[in-house]
Amino acid sequence: MRRLDTSRFLAALGLLGVVAGCGGSSSANARGQGSGSTGIAGGGCGDGIVEPPETCDPPAPGRGCSATCQVEPGWACTGPGTCQAAECGDGIVAGNEQCDDGNALPFDGCFQCQTEPSCPTGTCLSICGDGIVEPGEECDDGNNTSGDGCSADCKLEHIPGINCNNTNVYQLASFSAPVIFRDFKGFPEEGGHPDFEHFHCPQVSPGLLSPQLSAGITMSCATSSAGVKTCASGVPAKPAFAQGTSSVQFCGTDGTIDQRMITSADTFGQWYVDTPGVNKTVVGSLTLTRGASNTYVYDSDQTPLGNTTNTSELGFFPLDSVPPPASWGLTPPSGMFPPDPTLNHDYGFTTEFHNWFTYQGGEALNFSGDDDVWVFINHRLALDLGGTHDRQTGTVTLDDAAAAGLGLSKGTTYEMALFHAERHTTSSNFELTLGSFVKVMTTCASVCGDGIKAPDEQCDDGPNNGKPGDSCTANCQLRGD
């Protein structure tokens, strides 16, 4: 089975999902096309005329138009034989780009020029092409192209030769999810941030944040009178300081008993917002590996990031391998609680991670590590491990009681947001386990060898493909002269 060129890799948005199947025909009368299903005799790919479901013609593989007459990623084709490279990040939507907001950040509605789910209040909107099947959509294969089994308006097309099938949950051995890291200097350093390396407490300090995220802003796109489409970035929801004090005793500034673990609302407001001169933003990723019982796991003790100064040490140091000026560099051995100078790392950073799932019941999240970690589901605080504590563990299980408290309804898609901070120079650990957090996504593909010429095939002679004397190759392309 071959995935259509226009399909988008399932893991680009996070967890793999499933959808209600859609039917491609494999009936006997459909298979009776035989060697006459070449696609050239009656026009088609290669005739120099762009006709649906083609998006370009003639083919020019590697130069914008694939062998199946589909615009190749990174290209824009405006007419027969006229293709130009489209640059993701230039602020202009072109080619097979769904959006282009002129930046490389995830979670603002557009990432790598593909549309992300939009959940401004925690409950996700139905946006055709975001890769998640939501109410009102029959399918969503992560693009806005018709002719591939799932139309530009997310309706099933039932095209002969294309099958849209259920995809098994947790089929991938691993997936890579985007994250945003923001690097800070510690308080004792020149220009250091007052919240980093300024507090210490071995226990969790709950109640530091407001229990509700701020509302996000949805990305918007518009087309000018000249036909140029541009997009304005959205703004993801952010956490807010609760303005109060921790309920934990004997913890606070430099170990004193003032019960404070964050300087102020203003200083906390810089943790997860790009702030020139204060933090440096680095887009990275976490690779989660399939574990037991329908789980995906990232464990810094098994898959460390960074560790450029001591490759034998395990831990969560994602910015060690990001040299200045992209980061502030390795943290010097200074401060109230200095680390071993032989084990220098880039301490002092935050981690922001958003993902989306369709609530079914029984989902479970487990985190183990340090320092601060807050998890919001449907923009409501679900896990509170605030403070510069030693390694601690917290779990969220979405049973009926928890779901009611978080305002969840089965079959609805929600945003899950994790905010982490490493702000104390002794150790850094990060272990995240996601269980049964599922997205619903359509996977459509043509089947070479079924005797039905699909739109991305030049021919399909069924079992005769590739045999001597047959004009159709084993991969459903016409033989050359």
Number of helices: 3
**Beta-strand percentage?**
15-25%
Order of helices and strands: EHEEEEEEEEEEHEEEEEEEEEHEEE
Instruction: Specify the helix fraction band.
Output: under 10%
* Shape descriptor: elongated
β-strand number: 23
Span of the ends, CA to CA: 27 Å
The main sheet comes to:
10 strands, antiparallel
Residue windows where pLDDT falls under 50 for at least 5 positions: 5-42, 307-312, 334-339
SSE-based structural type: mainly beta
The chain-level mean pLDDT equals 83
For the largest sheet, list the strands in their spatial order: 19-18-21-16-7-12-13-22-17-20
Radius of gyration: 26 Å
Query: How many domain regions?
Result: 2
Descriptive report:
- It is a single chain.
- With 481 residues, the protein is mainly β.
- It folds into two domains: 1-168 and 439-481, no CATH class; 174-208 and 244-435, no CATH class.
- Helices cover 3% and strands 24% of the residues.
- It contains three helices and 23 strands.
- The strands form seven sheets. It has a ten-stranded antiparallel beta sheet with strand order 19-18-21-16-7-12-13-22-17-20, with no helix packed on it. It has a three-stranded antiparallel beta sheet with strand order 1-23-6, with no helix packed on it. A two-stranded antiparallel ribbon has the order 2-3.
- The longest helix has 7 residues, at 400-406.
Main attributes?
481 residues, mainly beta, 2 domains, ten-stranded antiparallel beta sheet, three-stranded antiparallel beta sheet, elongated
SSE layout and pairings?
Blueprint: E1 2-3, H1 28-31, E2 75-79, E3 82-85, E4 110-111, E5 114-115, E6 162-165, E7 174-183, E8 199-200, E9 220-223, E10 229-232, E11 252-253, H2 265-268, E12 280-290, E13 295-299, E14 305-306, E15 316-317, E16 349-358, E17 364-370, E18 373-377, E19 380-385, E20 392-397, H3 400-406, E21 413-422, E22 429-435, E23 443-446
Parallel strand pairs: 14-15
Antiparallel strand pairs: 1-23, 2-3, 4-5, 6-23, 7-12, 7-16, 8-11, 9-10, 12-13, 13-22, 16-21, 17-20, 17-22, 18-19, 18-21
